[in-house]
Design goal:
single chain; 124 residues; alpha/beta
Length: 124
């Protein structure tokens, strides 16, 4: 399986998902005009990854801002990857936020609470 690499634009984040290392990162701003079109490719890639996942998967969210439409798809992706926990694999969610960005920190807490899964919070 090849890595998923999507370069960032003004409206979409950089996405680097490496199936061999199990390290996934989403970095930047997520305000795509068509959130479904953007995130469907990630969700489809994850479907394939879940068939033969790495023993340890780490997902790092390094978002500066995301819109309401992105919220739904980010959460859908988190739910999808949480299926790894039901197998014999480990899953870690890392939520990065600027030290002075209380809203982004609270967004991570909200995702964690809805998902009923702990996040690691990392200030930068």
């Amino acid at each position: 399986m090849t890595p998923l690499v999507i370069n960032s634009t003004e409206d979409t984040p950089e996405v680097i998902f490496d199936p061999t290392t199990g390290k996934f990162t989403i970095t930047g701003t997520s305000i795509p005009e068509n959130a479904r079109k953007f995130y469907d490719q990630i969700i489809a890639w994850n479907d394939e990854y879940l068939k033969t996942p790495n023993a340890n998967t780490s997902v790092s969210f390094k978002l500066k801002y995301f819109n309401t439409a992105s919220t739904k798809y980010l959460f859908d992706m988190m739910v999808q990857l949480k299926a790894l926990v039901n197998s014999k694999n480990t899953l870690v969610f890392n939520w990065y936020f600027a030290e002075d960005d209380e809203d982004m920190y609270e967004a991570g807490q909200g995702f964690s609470k809805m998902l009923r899964y702990p996040f690691n919070y990392v200030k930068y």
